[in-house]
Specification:
The structure is a single chain. With 212 residues, the chain is of the alpha/beta class. The longest helix has 13 residues. The protein is 25% helix and 30% strand. It binds zinc ion (2 copies).
Length: 212
């Protein structure tokens, strides 16, 4: 079974998740966004206190805010980054993304080590999650479906009563289409964990989301 630990990091309020296989203590970091020494320390303390071994980084997409802690986690834990190849072009625009948000410091170089595609099953210890390609917020956006736990990590595709912005290499039509055809195909009781803000469920959003 996976235990899911949520952190909120940076001024962007990004939800970084740890997917921890309870049997082996192996874990994946999803969207590492720690952006200060105190946030790094908070993360490291949790990892050490819970005897966790980080074996991989999985990114739902490569917008700047979801990559603030990428270098730190790669260097501290030696974990490879897995993401959809559709995000390579987004990562290549990292400096432009920084400029757009008025961030003056040099942007890190983000490199995908392992390509993920729709339908891939990612092993985390003895547990696994499935990759669902949900383009539109960004071209290679993915969601991670943990079927046994009735949970889906959706990145910035879907929020409680909202959806992701589509002005950063995205497409509104594509996003709404992918939410309807892929995410709303999941069971209603599936817990939705987003890249920012509170959780929701598929059933609640089917009924109450004004954008889909
Ligand atoms: Zn985003
Ligand atoms: Zn975001």
């Amino acid at each position: 079974m996976l235990k899911i630990k949520q952190f909120a990091f940076s001024d962007f309020g990004v939800n970084t998740y740890l997917l921890i296989d309870e049997e082996t203590r192996q874990a994946a970091v999803v969207d590492p966004a720690m952006s200060s020494e105190s946030e790094q320390k908070r993360f490291d303390a949790y990892v050490a206190d819970n005897d966790i071994k980080i074996t991989q980084i999985i990114n739902t997409h490569l917008h700047l805010d979801h990559c603030f802690g990428m270098d730190y986690v790669k260097n501290a834990y030696g974990a490879p980054l897995k993401a959809h190849p559709g995000e390579a072009a987004v990562a290549a625009m990292m400096q432009q993304q920084y400029s757009m948000f008025g961030i003056r410091r040099p942007a890190p170089k983000v490199v995908i080590d392992v390509d993920l595609k729709d339908g891939d099953v990612i092993k985390i210890g003895h547990s696994s999650v499935e990759v669902i390609h949900v383009p539109g917020h960004s071209p290679g956006g993915i969601c991670l479906y943990y079927k046994e736990g009735n949970v889906v990590l959706v990145g910035d595709s879907l929020f409680r009563r909202s959806i992701g912005r589509t002005d950063l290499y995205g497409s509104h039509e594509q996003l709404v289409g992918a939410i309807r055809s892929r995410l709303f195909a999941l069971p209603d009781h599936t817990l939705v964990l987003s890249g920012h803000g509170p959780s929701t469920t598929i059933g609640e959003e089917k009924v109450g989301n004004p954008f889909v």
